[in-house]
Every structure is written in C-alpha cells, then in structure tokens.
Fold this protein.
Amino acid sequence: MKKKQLLSLILLFIVIPLILIVGVTLFNDGKYTIISIIVVLIACIPFFLSFERRKPNAREILVIAVMSAISVAGRAAFAWLPGFKPVTAFAAITGFKLGPEAGFLTGAVSAITSNILFGQGPWTPFQMFTWGILGYAAGLLGKTFLMNYKATLIVYGIIAGVLFSLIMDIWTVMSYDGSFNWTRYFAAAGTALPFTFMYALSNVVFLLLMYKPIGDKLERIKVKYGIMQHH
C-alpha cells in the first residue's frame, strides 16, 4: 500500500472517529459545529496531499484555476435562482477528464472562492468537502467509458444533487444550536426537498450542456501537453 493511501486510511478511519469520540466526551454532546469543521478539514487533507505530492506543473494548476473560475462565474450568474448551481457539474467534468484529484480541487476551490461573493462561514468547509468529494467521485467514474453516455450523466447528476443536499443538511441541523439529532435532520431533509430537486436539475442541465464542449477541450489540453496522464 502506498504511503499516501495509508495516510488517507488513518485520517479518514482512525483520526476522525477519535476526534468525534473526544468531542462527545469533552463537550458533552455539544460543540458539534467546531468538531464537524475540524473533521471536514482533516478529511480534505489526503486529497490535497495526493495532488500536491506528485508535483504538478504550472499547466495543470492553471487548468484547475480556470475551471474553478468558470464555476464561480456560473454560480454568480445563477445566484438569482436558489439551488441552481453549476459547481458540481464543473467539478465533475474536471474529474471525468483530468482525474479524481483535479475534480476534488476544482470543487473545493470553487466553494471557498465563490463564497467571497456569497459569504464565508462555518458552512464553507462543508461545501468545500462536499463539492470536492463529488468531483473526486466523478474522477473515479471517469476511468470508465460509461460516463460518455447521456443516461449515465443524468444518473450521476441526480445522485450528486441528492448527496450534496443530504451532506449540507448535516450542517443545517448543527447550525441551530451546535448539536445533532435525527429528528431535526429528517425534518431538514424534508424541508430541503425543493432545493434538492433544483440541485439535481442544475447538475443534469449543466452536465448535458457543458460535458462535451468543455470535456473535449480538456481532453485536447491533456493530450497536447501531456498533463494528468498519470492519474
């Protein structure tokens, strides 16, 4: 097992559970907001290290920066329509074509950058992690040819929309008083159904519209400059 894979397993399956146990013990089931932020930030570490340790060149970083900028611009353009966000789609397209690490970074960077416009807060790490994970998952799926079909893009878009909503609902529940309980979580998830529908719809729309034109350009850049060939 590679060192970075071992580090990821330790962080995700040992360090994070220990932090949760310590948090419950020391804070008496309170301060979940603080603990959750720490957990999300730690969960991001293996993905960032995985990308950084292989010493990417300037072109790779530039491509991710451009995709993040397009994502931010798209989110700003559709700010008037609640829940209709292109961030997942752009992170996914980057992941499909350039690999899991690029997908994760595009999603995470898009979140923290766009929140300069929409407002930073404790929810930002949740958005970074959630959009990053969706981009990372797209990178894993992109290694198969199935993602070239519209049907699979639609399925991914719907599932990604639901997952984004469910993960962010965790933050919604904890933002009330710093604690978590399932009753409020299910209530929040039910209340968020219209937004969940919009998340999924926006994913499908942007993936169907942008996958081919942007995906083809990313593919040409990858081939021409030999970037991301080892993901």
The radius of gyration is 18 Å. The chain has a mean pLDDT of 83.
